[in-house]
């Protein structure tokens, strides 16, 4: 969307939008949960569709005048079903957390037991953290990773047999390895539990066959649309037809009101983009870039959780060198690199400080970064970790980062 109209009517907000655009253009974005949408997706998100209230679902709305809205939402549903091979899809959740909330509402009653990955080991807030609704209203048992950083499926099975959860969650916000959804379903079946696969981070890799799919194994699959899928911020729930009616009711009126139809249109466009052959090439490049970054860090004497990555992200483990994730993330920002502090398994630091930094390759790959570029990124990160007290090296690192940003321009036209 062009900024001229906004500037004409609200210069203060227009200036801040432009300031944020410049920040994104001049920053190497390594936050694993972020990406850059196409300008088409951005344009769709800023349309007159935002004006329409459309509570309910296509063909069964509580408001009149939804004939066009129904067509758009149906297209989004059909495209995401084709993308993942799902029987049913609800594209209305405002976020991945709300998608998970709807599954909880449909499958559980307050106090029911849930088995999910511990947040400090790579899980997600909405999988049972005590500060989140999922941990406040449900009895959560957590599994983690072993000393090597991998999920121990035997331990997951042992916990399931001991605790008899009603819902098991497979999926994470910070797990760099392949997830065995088939094994998770076998464990769920042994204890009569539902299986929820949260693929928010790896959705694009799943859609392109670069990570095994949970569809056919999990009773419910949730995802965000703004990470590897490169869509607008939002969520999706997929399931079999036998759960379709219950899931739809859990979304509305269960957990939210009117859907954001302008965002659903943007989702539809992103799903269409992901169905194109070039999107699979993009996802292949994401994995290659993440591996190149991990290998560069390891070659430079730094530790990476689990020793590497199978997907789009990795976590720098700073324990051996006595640095904190908070400090390194702040220092990286000084040299035009954004990443987020993150806990590592058995982290001695608090979640507000951490001993790790999570790094992702999805956004930079969208910009066109190559394996060779990621080696340079790895050198920049190494410089910050090892030589943050050397002004010359920090200045050099900042220059290297800006050169990469200039080499791969983002939204070259004003107003993206």
Task: Lay out the secondary structure.
Layout: H1 4-9, H2 11-25, E1 28-29, H3 39-45, E2 56-57, E3 60-61, H4 67-84, E4 88-90, H5 96-107, E5 113-117, H6 133-136, E6 139-143, H7 153-163, E7 167-171, H8 181-191, E8 194-198, H9 203-207, E9 220-224, E10 235-239, H10 244-255, H11 261-274, H12 277-299, E11 303-304, E12 313-317, H13 325-334, E13 337-338, E14 340-342, E15 356-360, H14 362-367, H15 371-387, H16 391-407
Parallel strand pairs: 1-13, 5-6, 5-7, 7-8, 8-9
Antiparallel strand pairs: 2-3, 4-10, 9-10, 11-12, 12-15, 14-15
Structural summary, described in words:
The chain has 416 residues and is α/β, with parallel strands linked by helices. 45% of the residues lie in helices and 13% in strands. It has helices spanning 4-9, 11-25, 39-45, 67-84, 96-107, 133-136, 153-163, 181-191, 203-207, 244-255, 261-274, 277-299, 325-334, 362-367, 371-387, 391-407, and strands at residues 28-29, 56-57, 60-61, 88-90, 113-117, 139-143, 167-171, 194-198, 220-224, 235-239, 303-304, 313-317, 337-338, 340-342, 356-360. A 7-stranded mixed sheet has the order 4-10-9-8-7-5-6, with helices on both faces. Strands 11-12-15-14 form a 4-stranded antiparallel sheet. Helix 8 links the parallel strand 7 and strand 8. The protein is globular, with a radius of gyration of 21 Å. The model has no long low-confidence stretch (mean pLDDT 96).
